[in-house]
Amino acid sequence: xxCSECKKDLPKSHFYKESRTNRGYQYQCKNCQTNNRPxxxxxxxxxxxxxxxxxxxxDEDLDALMSVEHCDICNKKIGWSTSRTGSKAYIDHCHDTDxxxxxxxxxxxxxxxxxxxxxxxxxxxxxYIKNPPGLCRE
Length: 138
Fold this sequence. Notes:
By secondary structure, the protein is an alpha+beta fold. The protein has helices spanning 30-36, 43-55, 59-66, 106-114, 119-130; strands at 78-79, 87-93, 100-105. The protein contains 5 helices and 3 strands; from the N terminus they run αααβββαα.
């Protein structure tokens, strides 16, 4: 495959996949994309800015959240990157008010999300776990 930027003929492994192109890969090789990225681009700063804006919190509040090392529900070790830290950390928030509630692992965060942040549904789950019907049903 030929890179549209450096004009080198390179193997497919040197290109990112892109389903919207006819050839199934991006037109610039990975190296050219990295070299052409704006010098001010910093993924960590960008991620922090996105989190601050999404949850409308200060840098200090974000630092406090990002210092959390264990899930607020199950207490499993969590981290903000996926490298060797256990489960990835997520900021949990109320979908109605956008108020930040805490920091959770992916399992606890998606569990609450699947129950729709609904206290009644969560209470039904608790009742079910405490007193399952088993085979004895009326």
